[in-house]
Design goal:
Distance between the termini: 9 Å
CATH topology: Rossmann fold
Number of strands: 4
Structural class: alpha/beta
Order of helices and strands: EHEHHEHHEH
Largest sheet: 4 strands, parallel
Number of domains: 1
Shape: globular
Number of helices: 6
Strand content: 5-15%
CATH class: Alpha Beta
Helix content: 40-55%
């Protein structure tokens, strides 16, 4: 069964489109492109319709990721029903998502990105690199790669139980 994952950050121009691109590529590399659908959204709609932050695009491109997503706002009425898992990038995003959830089932879909980390386990979330320098974008990509690998392992393992 295909799993639908939505990555969510504040404005949907740095962290969440990065996570989406990493998931798409990693799933494809592992022969699971048809098993995992990834998308991203922002808590706020300030950047709706825009491409990802140019700095994030440049750092991601150096690692072979193409960020083609256009920013969009998270819509609780549609997104909680459309996705199996909704992954907030940090504690604030998770709090906001939980506050928008109308049912226990919806709250149960919300997780924090670093919950899936191995190398960066125990972190309070993926930091927002928007106001920082190049090292912030590199750290974010390191963390996203770690978390995506852990999440993908979990999704593929969970998928075996249903076969």
């Amino acid at each position: 069964m295909r799993k639908r994952v939505l990555f969510v950050c504040l404005g949907n121009i740095c962290r969440s489109p990065g996570a989406e691109a990493i998931m798409r590529r990693r799933a494809g590399e592992r022969g699971a492109a048809d098993l995992v659908y990834a998308d991203s959204a922002g808590i706020g709609g300030w950047h709706a319709g825009e491409t990802a932050d140019k700095r994030m695009m440049a750092h991601a491109a150096r690692r072979g990721y193409e960020l083609t997503h256009r920013a969009r706002k998270f819509y609780p009425d549609a997104d909680f029903g459309a996705f199996d898992l909704i992954v907030g990038m940090d504690d604030g995003n998770v709090r906001d998502l939980l506050a928008m959830a109308a049912t226990e089932e919806e709250r149960g879909k919300v997780r924090k990105m670093t919950d899936f980390c191995r190398r960066f386990a125990g972190r309070n979330g993926v930091p927002d690199p928007y106001y920082g320098g190049a090292e912030g974008f590199e750290l974010v990509l390191d963390m996203l790669e770690d978390a995506v690998d852990g999440l993908l392992d979990q999704l593929l393992e969970d998928g075996k139980g249903g076969e």
